[in-house]
Design goal:
binds calcium ion, alpha/beta, Rossmann fold
Length: 229
């Protein structure tokens, strides 16, 4: 169930909004002052906030600004004055929507539902975004298995990609050639640990500007390799 916070000093309006939202199965809390509303909005996890502009204590402008410094919770700002709505739109306060009072409660419910759906899509999209490793000019897109050096794409074989990614994901850790071979080639019988040396050399040719003085994969003599950050 989505939780909604109404910050509104006119109790009759707040109660009306609450009744309609509860009919649509939302869980609704009301705060009548800007400062208490703000502290609850920051401390608790509401899914959406309906924020009145003119409030005693801290006004809606300031409440909106302070929430936005920390959270992306959707905010619908309401005001009795159309001029105020025009003004806050122009200021780019970071509110997601604006409504002029009086508005029909069903219009409010419709907008609340639309913003909740939109917010869930955005958060969901975030979770599915490609996973990147970025170290100085080197960018590894783990999802698409692509490598970029100073924004120029380099072609990697499967094993080169696996080896580079493994090292980059464990920075400053020294691995022996045996460990790397086991990690990347697993149970494959082909090849031996010299394969690791060959692959490191090929990777360096692609990502280093000076292979005799590598900036990413460092050779630890007599031990193995380490990815430097
Ligand atoms: Ca008010």
């Amino acid at each position: 169930m989505s939780r909604i916070l109404i910050i509104e000093d006119e109790e009759s309006i707040a109660e009306l909004e609450k009744d309609y939202l509860e009919l649509s199965q939302f869980e609704v809390d009301i705060e009548n002052s800007g400062d208490v509303g703000l502290s609850r909005a920051l401390k608790e996890d509401f899914d959406l906030i309906i924020l009145d502009l003119m409030l005693p204590g801290v006004d809606g402008f300031e409440v909106c600004r302070q929430i936005r410094e920390i959270k992306n919770t959707p905010i619908i700002m309401v005001s009795a004055k159309k001029e105020d709505i025009d003004k806050i739109r122009g200021l780019g306060m970071g509110a997601d929507d604006y409504m002029t009072k009086p508005f029909s409660p069903s219009e409010l419910v419709a907008r609340v539902k639309a913003h909740l759906a939109r917010y869930k899509r955005l958060v969901g999209a975030d979770e599915h975004r490609n996973q990147w490793i970025e170290i100085r000019g080197l960018k590894i897109d783990k999802t698409a298995r692509r490598v970029f050096v100073n924004d120029e794409e380099k072609n990697f074989t499967t094993k080169e990609f696996d080896l580079l990614t493994f090292l980059a994901e464990h920075p400053n850790h020294v691995y022996t050639k045996e460990e790397l071979f086991r990690e990347i080639w697993e149970m494959e019988s082909v090849g031996d640990i010299a394969t690791v040396t060959v692959h490191i050399k090929k990777i360096r040719e692609k990502i280093e500007t000076d292979t005799s003085n590598p900036q990413y994969i460092e050779t630890i003599w007599g031990v193995g390799y380490r990815f430097k950050v």
